[in-house]
Description:
Elements: E1 19-23, H1 28-39, E2 43-48, H2 51-63, E3 68-73, H3 79-87, E4 98-101, H4 117-145, E5 149-153, H5 166-185, E6 192-198, E7 201-202, H6 205-209, H7 214-220, E8 227-228, H8 229-240, E9 250-253
Parallel strand pairs: 1-2, 1-4, 2-3, 4-5, 5-6, 6-9, 7-8
The chain binds NADP nicotinamide-adenine-dinucleotide phosphate (NAP).
Amino acid sequence: MASRVTYDGSMKTELKNAVVFVTGASAGIGEACAFAFAREGARLLLAARRLERLEATRGKLMESGAAAVHAIKLDVRDNAAVEAAVAGLPQEWRAIDVLVNNAGLSRGLDKLYEGSLPDWEEMIDTNVKGLLYVTRAVVSGMVERGRGHVINLGSTAGELTYPKGAVYCATKHAERAINDGLRQDLLGTPIRVTSIDPGMVETDFSKVRFHGDQERAAKVYQGLTPLVAEDVADAVVWAATRPAHVNIARVLITSIDQANSLLFNRS
Ligand code: NAP
């Protein structure tokens, strides 16, 4: 028979020395997560294509409290590289406790019938296939070890589709289905699965979406207060530090100037 938990307020999951793997840690939300987990004293396993950016933050992460930092150059779209990276980790980095599936992007803002196929491929390959590859490579080890937490970056775009964003929204709807499916498949294990679903966050996201067009990107955030990456990292760490018997399924988080992916308060 399952035992009843008596909550005493001290049951927070401790992340000191826990191995936390963050994909897409070279910028934005992923970088903010690295700092937030550093403050918890975690060991940070950081991945992105821009290894030099990961290396550049190493010192500051250690100053912020990280127990150790290990950076790897990784393109999550390349399954062979993902498998090799996870299998080839030094012994002391293999037992991943928390996986933050954050690497992702939007490309373009076009009517579906006018959309760019390379943009579609990049979003689907990164946000859906990349997330699956990393999950497949890491979660089997979590099951063997009988511990772990997978935290996926979803979006308000995974809840409500907006015009000219059908493909990006489709990738985040897929993330939602994968998040829910994984939680069902892990039922009966102690492994937790969470989706953190932010609305608009001011990062390089729009610059990437508009292929480097800074001016167009800046307009996205004009006349409103968006979330900042640290707001999202705060929710990620909150989910990770709940008591071991508590699974936060989804956190939908927007700034005060956003109601959903269609409705904004702009001055
Ligand atoms: P960002 O500042 O552009 O950062 C994206 C990160 O993903 C970068 O570190 C980038 O690193 C990494 N990345 C992209 N493609 C990759 C690949 N193929 N392999 C490995 N890493 C890759 O954007 P962000 O706003 O922080 O976005 C992070 C996540 O939050 C994404 O999943 C995004 O969909 C989600 N999200 C963002 C918002 C928003 O408004 N900003 C809202 C909801 C959800 P490299 O380029 O160095 O590889």
